[in-house]
């Protein structure tokens, strides 16, 4: 008996190892085929140029604030100090961490002239786009959860006004493409709202918030159906038992039904939120420089489509995978709590 089980275990291990080898062969073949195709089209990989789109050193010019003449230029280990005798007898001092000066002692300078240049680290366009994608997605997820929760509860309500309004909202949103909804939010609702605000002298709403609103309303409709199905998956006996103990409908829903439903809706919510992060790439059409639009701008200027689109895909993968791991952790916590 032991020998037969040991033989079976060895066969399973050999089979498992064989399919692992098959997996790596497929991945290697794909990468090799892609590289071969780039050779055929005479494409030169320039991965060394990618880091500058995350962080780069920018030249910052130190400019004179007024007309005058350079009196002294002092250079030390920490930087350079340039003193200018401005018109009116006032002395101005400019200190910067560099010895790259563009003037000499005794030179006449005017307002706006460059006195020196120093370098400073700045965040690149890809990292800016990644941060904006994360910011927009996070805000849209929060509002989408709130909107979906209340809409899902209204969907199963006995009140016909709440129920029919929720059904109308869900069907309208789920029945039209997100791209069309973004256009409606930005070009129609955005134009109307900002025009009214301008008439009353109120500051206009930036395009970012119309993009967030479109993503939140789109996500809220799907979250509402997820919440509804999660609540209805709980047996009616749970509600009846809690009501028999003297709980109100709201107390029964908050203390008994929703905690159980939450455990069941985490997996579909994870899929919906991952889709939201990827759908945020559509906001580039309304001049929001999220990750995809930032990548497109860099590709246009650098002519490096292969490297940059691979990097863009990898950044989206990092965001979605991190969110997936977080929701799996929450699912395990709620499962064993």
UniProtKB/TrEMBL annotation:
<keyword id="KW-1133">Transmembrane helix</keyword>
<feature type="transmembrane region" description="Helical">
    <location>
        <begin position="16"/>
        <end position="36"/>
    </location>
</feature>
<dbReference type="Pfam" id="PF00528">
    <property type="entry name" value="BPD_transp_1"/>
</dbReference>
<comment type="function">
    <text>Part of the binding-protein-dependent transport system for glutamine; probably responsible for the translocation of the substrate across the membrane.</text>
</comment>
<keyword id="KW-1003">Cell membrane</keyword>
<protein>
    <recommendedName>
        <fullName>Putative glutamine transport system permease protein GlnP</fullName>
    </recommendedName>
</protein>
<dbReference type="InterPro" id="IPR035906">
    <property type="entry name" value="MetI-like_sf"/>
</dbReference>
<feature type="transmembrane region" description="Helical">
    <location>
        <begin position="208"/>
        <end position="227"/>
    </location>
</feature>
<keyword id="KW-0813">Transport</keyword>
<dbReference type="InterPro" id="IPR000515">
    <property type="entry name" value="MetI-like"/>
</dbReference>
<dbReference type="InterPro" id="IPR010065">
    <property type="entry name" value="AA_ABC_transptr_permease_3TM"/>
</dbReference>
<feature type="transmembrane region" description="Helical">
    <location>
        <begin position="178"/>
        <end position="202"/>
    </location>
</feature>
<feature type="transmembrane region" description="Helical">
    <location>
        <begin position="136"/>
        <end position="157"/>
    </location>
</feature>
<keyword id="KW-0472">Membrane</keyword>
<dbReference type="InterPro" id="IPR043429">
    <property type="entry name" value="ArtM/GltK/GlnP/TcyL/YhdX-like"/>
</dbReference>
<dbReference type="GO" id="GO:0022857">
    <property type="term" value="F:transmembrane transporter activity"/>
</dbReference>
<dbReference type="GO" id="GO:0043190">
    <property type="term" value="C:ATP-binding cassette (ABC) transporter complex"/>
</dbReference>
<feature type="domain" description="ABC transmembrane type-1">
    <location>
        <begin position="130"/>
        <end position="327"/>
    </location>
</feature>
<comment type="similarity">
    <text>Belongs to the binding-protein-dependent transport system permease family. HisMQ subfamily.</text>
</comment>
<keyword id="KW-0812">Transmembrane</keyword>
<keyword id="KW-0029">Amino-acid transport</keyword>
<dbReference type="GO" id="GO:0006865">
    <property type="term" value="P:amino acid transport"/>
</dbReference>
<feature type="transmembrane region" description="Helical">
    <location>
        <begin position="308"/>
        <end position="330"/>
    </location>
</feature>
């Amino acid at each position: 008996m032991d020998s037969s089980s040991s033989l079976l275990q060895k066969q399973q291990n050999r089979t498992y190892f064989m399919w692992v080898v098959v997996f790596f062969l497929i991945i290697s073949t794909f990468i090799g085929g892609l590289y071969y195709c780039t050779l055929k089209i005479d494409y030169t990989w320039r991965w060394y140029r990618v880091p500058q789109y995350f962080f780069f050193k920018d030249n910052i010019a130190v400019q004179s604030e007024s007309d005058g003449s350079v009196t002294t230029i002092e250079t030390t280990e920490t930087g350079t100090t340039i003193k200018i005798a401005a018109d009116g007898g006032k002395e101005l001092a400019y200190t910067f961490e560099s010895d790259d000066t563009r003037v000499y002692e005794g030179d006449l300078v005017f307002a706006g002239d460059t006195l020196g240049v120093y370098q400073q680290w700045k965040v690149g366009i890809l990292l800016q786009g990644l941060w904006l994608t994360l910011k927009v997605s996070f805000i849209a997820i929060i509002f989408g959860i709130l909107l979906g929760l209340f809409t899902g509860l209204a969907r199963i309500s006995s009140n016909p006004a709440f129920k029919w309004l929720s059904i109308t909202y869900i069907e309208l949103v789920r029945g039209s493409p997100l791209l069309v909804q973004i256009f409606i939010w930005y070009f129609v609702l955005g134009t109307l709202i900002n025009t009214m605000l301008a008439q009353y002298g109120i500051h206009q709403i930036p395009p970012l918030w119309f993009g967030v609103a479109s993503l939140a309303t789109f996500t809220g409709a799907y979250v509402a159906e997820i919440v509804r199905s999660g609540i209805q998956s709980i047996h009616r006996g749970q509600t009846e038992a809690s009501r028999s103990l003297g709980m109100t409908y709201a107390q029964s829903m908050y203390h008994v039904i929703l905690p159980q439903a939450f455990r069941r809706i985490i997996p579909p919510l994870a899929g919906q939120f991952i889709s939201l992060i990827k759908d945020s790439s559509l906001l580039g059409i309304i001049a929001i420089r999220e990750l995809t639009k930032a990548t497109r701008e860099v590709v246009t200027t650098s002519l490096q489509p292969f490297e940059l689109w691979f990097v863009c895909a990898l950044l989206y993968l990092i965001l979605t995978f991190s969110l997936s791991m977080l929701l799996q952790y929450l699912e395990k916590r709620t499962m064993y709590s």
